[in-house]
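re: that complex we talked abt at group meeting.

here r the seqs, copy pasted straight from the sheet so there may be weird spacing, ignore it
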Amino acid sequence: MSGPRGAIEVSGLTVRFGGVTSLDAMSVTFERGTCGLIGPNGAGKTTFFNVLSGFVRPAAGTVRAFGEDLLSMAHFRRARWGVRRTFQTEQAIEELSVFDNVAMVHEHSRLGGTSRRRDVLGAISFVGLDADPYAKVAALAAGQRRLVEVARAVVGRPKLVLLDEPAAGLPDEETEHLGAVIRAIGEQTGALTILVDHDMSLVSACCSTTAVLDFGRLIASGPTAEVLRDDRVISAYLGTAEVETS
Amino acid sequence: MLDVAEAAAGARPRWPLRRPDTRTLTRAGVIGVLLAFVLFALPQLLSLYYVDAMTQVAVYSMVTLGLGVLVGRVGLVSLGQVAVLAIGAWTAARLLFATSMPYPLVLLEAGVITMVAGMVIGLPALRLRGLYLALITLMLAGAITVVLATVNFPNGGHGFLGYNGSSVHIPPIRRPGIAASDPAYFRFAVVVAALMFLLAAVHLRTRPGRAWAAIRQSEPAALAAGINTTLYKLWALALASFITGVAGGVLAGAVHYLYSIDFPTQDSITLLAVVLMGGAYSLWGAVIAALLLQLLPALLNNWGVSADWLTILFGLGVLQVLTTAPAGLADQVPKDLARLGRLLRALARRLAPSGGPE
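got the structure back, here u go
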């Protein structure tokens, strides 16, 4: 199966939880590189990630990832294929060491064991984690744990990296460092990255294109700067933020 | 020069082995010395009464090990482990009466057969967690107890069940030739238990251990890491059942005669209690749990105190563990000892300046 260009093509994706429609006929194409996905709380961003990870079965729609039908794969097989994600509430495994956290992903990827140690240490140094790789994650600070999660997302030849609010709760300088890491993911791994975050400066700094969800509907997509100037986006998202802050 | 060194390092599969640091070596040394003491000195020091009690400790340390892996590492609460032990004991007894296979081979077979049975009993674990899983395993264990009470343990009779209700001279279940006496059988039980602990430790330090840690903390995170959670849960059930089945086989030779009344369903609850008290997150916890479960009643009996008091003690112990020390005694005791050490050092420092110069 040969895919058209390098892209994630979503068409007519609909997710319902009981009477609530979380995603409403979402159709969008994410091109190679780093793409932003923004929207107010409850817009359906995490639901979209959960569909891509296989945790949520959509009522309708298809997702073609580099020409392959992503939704037909079992959830645990998607990591082997190349889907990686981080979670809104960080999920580094506390009782394992940093090394084991990353190795865990590598040993369920397509890569063999011979390069494992080098790849795992490479991923840890790629994210710039300044900690003993054999220290338990439980002993790390919040920002370091986020980096462990990102290291897990870039190890073992990922094709699609989903970052769900990786900068939430981080101080500015750590967010800046994280931004630099995210910008480098594409070049390091060749993966397409989708970044969900509420920090608009981070999204602007990392993403050339951005899609906007509101109440499960895609209301805009295109170059990030244009999208952020879009009236519908401002009224749906930034507008409410202004009212809240004033 | 550097390239050569790198190539050499790359050619040797260094992963997952890391150069052992001094701490690991110290730990291995301590375990070695302890094992040597238990194997060679302990049977000389103890009376036959306590040698038998310690054989039970060795047997039950495997049972608590299996449950500890399920509860502490994977997060599956099973209340059916005594029934699994009974299956292992039954299978081993049947094979020991029917064949003249070497004892270790019988243990292996009992382990494998129990593994299959335990996986079937544990199938609900793939769908259920927590209280509901505990309830289902408890009820399955109850069913097995009922079946066992009906078919009885083999006593040298014929047929598939090997039970002869009218036999007058019941032959004892045999022991390995080299371990016929009680002290020798104790050593045999300790060696088997040590091998089972090694098996568990290898699992915990490699791929399944990492997968179980992920599953216990967060199944979504495990799935996102590419871990087939169903497979690894089944793997944990298989490992725990195998170890428990082997324990059943060792138990059969230890007691010579097996009765279904020795495997009451409610013992599985006590088992969970001592596993929590000993510490479900550490392999040492399994040893402590077995000591609580088997040595403590032996001590109390010897002192003329009813072992029934232990039910109350274990109840209080679990309460204490769940409220103040979730990692159990295996975690609490070293911490308390370290605290005591710091206190003594501080005391010594305070006394030294006043006492020193004068």
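couple things i noticed - The longest helix of chain B spans residues 48-74. Chain B is about 75% helix and 0% strand.
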